[in-house]
Write a structure and sequence with these properties.
The chain is of the alpha+beta class and 329 residues long. It has helices at residues 3-21, 26-33, 37-49, 79-83, 91-96, 100-113, 116-128, 146-155, 223-238, 249-253, 255-258, 261-270, 289-297, 309-326, and strands at 54-57, 63-66, 157-164, 171-184, 187-193, 197-201, 205-214, 241-247, 280-286, 303-307. It folds into four domains: 1-74, Arc Repressor Mutant, subunit A (Orthogonal Bundle), CATH 1.10.10; 79-133, no CATH class; 146-236, SH3 type barrels, CATH 2.30.30; 241-326, Alpha-Beta Plaits (2-Layer Sandwich). 46% of the residues lie in helices and 22% in strands. Helix 1 crosses helix 6 (100-113) and helix 2 (26-33) packs across helix 3 (37-49).
Length: 329
């Protein structure tokens, strides 16, 4: 984009900001447009020269304002801004995809096009509701390949990737057709096909090269439907066994915040009648033995594993080791 077109776009944004928000100081405009106050002064002069009825007032309560009743019609969306509309409620992911500026401009143009009563309502909603996708207690993924992956998805270009996975061989290279990107709990996943459709965590892609080869998406492929099916299949494959456990009344009361929903549901669905101390016995799904060992050991004396025997023995051995570690002397 040339310097002139950048300035023209910025001046339009300045005009739309004044139209949608009313009086704004030069400092407020500079902060919104991410430019210096001096640049705002020059842009205001350019609007004056173009005949825009804009006036400024000095003093603490002053600022720039359009003459009452004036409305610009420069609210048409560019292609990139229109493409970004579905992300207007998720500014963080939009920035990660390289569409932050387009989302901001699209939102501003949509707001400017609304009649005053609906604009006020939209502003109130924006002030009262905010969407934040990532989980608590988790750093956002480092995804240097995301922008290139998004470009390949959009232009339907085949990509060559180097991917790190948990099972051997841990480093693989593949040429795939990228069908779509999914944001799940703050993490990006690439849905792509080679011999079959697979899911790749974008942060685990160490190299991604967009090729010149085009590909054809399968007719009727539904990204949302595929993702729902993938999640269901993932849950079925992940829970390979069950464990029988006794749960204290204190832990049961807070179990929803301590375990994933499937484990909590299993406790509630299979729980026995509480014994005289309030403990219940239940059957819950488990993943690998290592994962179950860490999970139940972390609950300390609030859980007793009854079966399988291997899991009970491993936890017993860990408790004995802890006792030796923390014994006095």
């Amino acid at each position: 984009m040339s310097v002139l077109s950048v300035r023209a776009s910025r001046i339009v944004q300045l005009l739309l900001l004044l139209q949608t928000r009313g009086r704004l100081t030069a400092a407020q405009l500079a902060a919104e447009l991410e430019v210096s106050v001096r640049t705002v002064y020059r842009d205001v002069d350019a609007l004056h020269a173009a005949g825009v009825p804009l006036y400024g007032e000095a003093g603490h309560a002053g600022g720039y304002q359009l003459v009452e009743g004036y409305r610009t019609r420069l609210t048409g969306l560019t292609e990139n801004e229109a493409d970004s509309l579905f992300l207007t409620g998720l500014p963080g992911p939009a920035r990660e995809l390289g569409l932050g500026a387009e989302v901001a401009a699209a939102r501003l143009k949509l707001t400017a096009a609304l009649p005053p009563e609906l604009r006020d309502r939209a502003t109130r909603i924006q002030q009262r509701f905010h969407l934040d996708a990532p989980n608590w207690y988790a750093e956002p993924d480092d995804t240097p390949a995301l922008a290139a992956a998004a470009d390949a998805v959009w232009r339907e270009r085949r990509v060559h990737i180097r991917y790190h996975r948990w099972r051997a061989p841990t480093e693989v290279t593949r040429t795939v057709d990228p069908y779509g990107l999914v944001l799940k709990a703050g993490r990006w996943y690439l849905v792509a096909a080679s011999k079959r459709i697979s899911t790749y965590r974008v942060s685990q892609i160490s190299e991604l090269t967009v090729l010149d080869e085009e590909f054809q998406r399968p007719p009727g492929f539904d990204l949302a439907a595929y993702w729902a099916s993938y999640l269901a299949d993932f849950a079925a494959r992940r829970h390979v066994d069950t464990a029988t456990v006794r749960v204290s009344p204190e832990l049961r009361e807070h179990l929803l915040d301590a375990v994933e929903p499937s484990v909590h549901r299993a406790v509630e669905d299979t729980a026995s009648e509480p014994d005289e101390d309030g403990w219940v016995t239940a059957t819950v799904p488990i993943e690998k033995m290592d994962h179950a060992h860490r999970l139940f050991l972390g609950f300390g004396a609030d859980v007793e594993v009854l079966a399988p025997a291997e899991l009970r023995e491993r936890i017993s051995a860990s408790v004995a080791a802890l006792a030796r570690t923390y014994s006095p002397g």
